[in-house]
Amino acid sequence: MCEHILGERCCLTAFVIFFGSFNLDVGTKDVKDEEIRVITKYHKTLAIINECHILFYDIGLKKNLIYYANCEEHGDGVQCLAGHRTMPMFAFAEKCYNPRILLFTYPNFTPISILKDGYTNLVFSELEYIVSLSTFPQFIITVWCWRTGTKLAWKESGSTQLGEQLLRCSLSSPVIVSQMLEMSECLLLWEINVCSKRCMLSKNKVFLPEAKSCCGFIWAPEGVLHIVTRNGDVYTVDAETHKAHLAIAWLTYNTDNANQKPDDENLIEEASQYFETKSESEEGKQGVTKNKETDDKSINKSNAIPCIAWFKGGIVVAGPDFYIKHFKRTSKVWKETWSILLNIHLVKLAASSLKEYLIGISDRGELYQYMPTMSTPTFERVQNYGSSFTHVCMIKPQCEMLATLGSNGILDVWDKTTGGHVGAMSLEAKYLCMVSSPKLPYIVLGRCDGVVDFLNVYCPERPQVLCQVSLCAWEIQDVQFTLSGSLLVAANTTNGDFFLIKANAGDRMEVLSYTSCKQEVTDFTVLESKKGLHLLVLVSSQKCCKAGLKIIVYEKLGDERILSLKGYVELAGYYIGLSFHPEINLRFFGVLHRSKQIHVLEFTPESGGVATSTPRTHQPRPSFAYTLWPESVKASSLSLNITTNERQTPPLPLPSPKPYSQ
Fold first, then answer.
1. What is the rounded CA–CA span in Å between residue 440 and residue 354?
2. CA 58, CA 47: separation in Å to the nearest integer?
C-alpha cells in the first residue's frame, strides 16, 4: 500500500506500512557500519521513500534501516513503493528513463524478480499479483505475476488529466483495484479475474454526487470501498450498482474547546444503505444528521486535506479541522467512538490489521502513533524526519549540529552524527536566507519584510530569538558573515542594497553602514585583510539569467564605519557565484556560468603583483591577472588572480584594463 504525501517538494515523498505475521529468524543488516538486529516475530515496519533512499522504521523496536537505490543492481532512484500485506517483501519502481520494477525481500533485501517498464504507482494484491499504473498520457494499468515476472493483462484507463493517481487493492475476492485522480469526482474500479493462464480486466466508473472532490479511499476487510471527500464526508460505494452514497457527514467542533464532545442526538447516521439502491431524492429523505457548521463553505479554514484509514473494525478520518475521529457501524448508524484534537495536521494515515497500530505522518515530517488509554486516547510523536526544507546550515563553531528551515516555518535542529532530532521552534515570518555565525552558536535569517532575525542555538534543544534588526521595507535576500564573524553584510540583491552590521560577541548588534550599487546583483562575498573589510559584488550583466561580468569593490578600512566604493574589475567570463575561502583571507572561489569549472581567485588590494599557485598533485596552472587603476589610488592597484586547471577549457582572452568611473 503506497500513499503519497501532499504538497510540493516534500522531503518524505511516500509513506508505506508493512504489517504481517512474518515468522523470521533473527537477522542482521549493516547500514553505515551500524548493525541493526531484527528480533521480532511480527514485523511492524513503516517505509518512507525520498529520491534514491528507502527508510524503514520498525515501530516496535524503534529502529531505522536504510535501503540505497543508487546503482544498477539496487535500482536507479525510487519513484513509488508498495509493500505486501502478509509477506516480507516490497517493490518499487525506478525514478529514471526506461525504469524497472524491482522486488526484494525484507529485511535482507534479497532480489526476487525484476519487471520491465516503469510506473508511477504500485499496489500488491493478497496473492501473487502486483498491479502497476503508468504515467501520462496512456495511464496503462497492468497486472503482473511477481513470482515469474510475467505480464498477465494490461489496459488503458482512459484518464487524460495530469495529477497524483492513487491505487488501492481490495482485501477480498474477487480482487478489485480502485484508481482515482486525487481531488477529482470520478473513481475507477478494476475487477481482476484470473482463470488458469488468462487474466481479464473489467472497468467500472463511480461518480460522487454533488461533484464532491475525492482525496482518499480505503477498502474494508469485507470488500466495501469508503471514500473521503475534501470536506471530510465519507461515502460508501455499492458493490452491485457502483454508486456512492453518503455514509458519514463530518461534524465540526469548536476548536477553542478541546474537551467538547458530540451529543447523542448528533450521531452520524447512514445516508443510504450501501446494499440497497437509492436515488438522490430518496437520499435526501434519509435524514443525515448535520449541524449548522457542516454546511459552512469555510469548513476547511486550515486548507488541510482529509485522509482515511481502516482501524479496529471502523473508519478513522483525519478531518479538515485538526480533529481525528474514529467511527464504528452499529446496525444502520455510524457512531463516533472517540475524537482527538491535535495541534498539527496529519496528511496520511495507515493502520495495522493484525496489531493495534495506527500511524500518521504530519506535514512537518513527524510520525505520530495512536496510544489507547483508559481515559482519553492520544497521539504521541515517535519520530521526526522533517519535511520541505528550504534552507540548511551547520551550527558553528563545533559543527556538531545541523539547522534546517522548512516551508512550514519550522526551524529544526538535528544531530549530525546520529541524525536524531534535537530541538525545534516555530517561526511566523517568511524567510529568504539563513546563515550561521562562524565563531558563535547563533543563526541569522533574512526576512521578506526587511528584518534580520538573530536566533540563539547555544541550547539546541530550545532555540530562541536573540534579537531582531529592522533594516528596510523590502526583502533581505542574502546574508554573509566575515571569516572572523565580527561583521556581517545583509543584502537585497534585486536593488543592490547592502547593510553592514556589527556582530561582535558581547556587543549589541549595530548597523554601521548602508550602500547601494543600484544594479541587480548576482552574488557577493566578504573578505578581510589587515587593512579592513572588502565587499566584492558581482553585478548581473545578462537579462536572461543571473550571471555577472563585473565585480564592484567596496572597502571599510580600519575603524571606519562606512563602506566606500573602491572600483571595479571586468572579468573575461561570466560568473554565477562567489564564495570566500574558509582558510585564506583574500582568496575566494568563482563559479563559471554554464561550465563545470570553479576558479580560485585572489584579491590583492595593496600590490599589483600576482602569485602563481602550483598544486603538488597537479600540473602547473596558468594565472590570469585583471588589474584596475582607479584615478583616486595612485600607488596601489586592485588585481585578481584566477587559477584554473589547464586540462579544462581555458578562459576567454583578457580584456584591456578599464579605468574606474564613478
1. 51
2. 9
**At 651, which amino acid appears?**
P
In angstroms, the CA 414 to CA 402 distance is 5
- Grid cell, residue 566, equals 573602491
**Is the separation of the CB atoms in 56 and 45 below 8 Å?**
yes
Residue 202 has pLDDT above 80, yes or no: yes
Taking phi over 0 as left and psi of -120 to 50 as alpha, with beta for the rest, 221 belongs to alpha
Q: What is the pLDDT of residues 142-191, one digit of tens each?
A: 999 888 888 889 988 877 666 678 888 888 888 899 888 777 777 889 99
Is residue 418 a part of any domain in this protein?
Answer: no
Query: Before 372, cis peptide (omega within 30)?
Result: no
Query: What is the rounded CA–CA span in Å between residue 29 and residue 107?
Result: 7
Q: What are phi and psi of 283, to 5 degrees?
A: -65, -35
Helix (H, G, I), strand (E, B) or coil at 11: coil
Q: Assess whether pLDDT exceeds 90 at residue 325.
A: yes
> What angle (nearest 5°) sits at the alpha carbon of residue 330, between those of residues 324 and 334?
35
CA-CA distance, 129 to 651, in Å (whole number)? Answer: 58
Number of domains present in the structure of the chain: 1
User: DSSP code of 611?
Assistant: P
The alpha carbon torsion through 167, 145, 109, 358 (nearest 10 deg) reads 30
pLDDT for position 239: 84
User: Could you give the CA distance from residue 387 to residue 326 in angstroms, rounded to a whole number?
Assistant: 27
**Core vs surface per residue 278-302: b (16+ CB within 10 A) or e:** beeeeeeebebbbeeebeeeebbee
The CA angle 159-163-168, to the nearest 5 degrees, is 75
CB 188 within 8 A of CB 209: no
Report the distance separating Cα 304 and Cα 363, nearest Å.
10
Cβ within 8 Å of residue 612, ≥6 positions away: 620, 621, 623
Beta strands in 241-365 (DSSP E): 244-248, 268-269, 307-311, 314-318, 323-330, 333-341, 346-351, 358-362
Residue type for 661, please? Answer: S
HSE-up of residue 335 (Cα within 13 Å, Cβ side): 8
Give the separation between CA 380 and CA 251, rounded to whole angstroms.
Answer: 24
pTM > 0.85 = no
For residue 268, the enclosing domain spans 208-341
Nearest CA-CA partner of 590 in 550, 534, 630, 533: 550
In a domain, 225, yes or no: yes
C-alpha pair distances (Å), 590 with each of 129, 385, 520, 549, 612 = 54, 34, 18, 12, 17
| C-alpha closest to that of 114 among 69, 177, 178, 65 | 69
Give the C-alpha distances (Å, rounded to integers) separating 427 from 299, 365, 406, 519, 562: 26, 17, 10, 31, 32
Q: What SS3 class is residue 280?
A: helix
Inside any domain, residue 386: no
- Phi, psi of 284, rounded to the nearest 5 degrees: -70, -20
What contacts 379, CB < 8 A, 6 or more positions away? 324, 340, 342, 346, 360, 368, 369, 370, 371
Q: Would you call the peptide bond into 397 cis, given omega within 30 degrees of 0 as the criterion?
A: yes
| Confidence (pLDDT) at 51 | 81
Residue 299 lies in a domain: yes
Task: Tell me if 556 sits within 8 A of 566, measured CB to CB.
Answer: no
Length of the chain counted residue by residue: 662
Would the pLDDT of 610 be above 60?
Answer: no
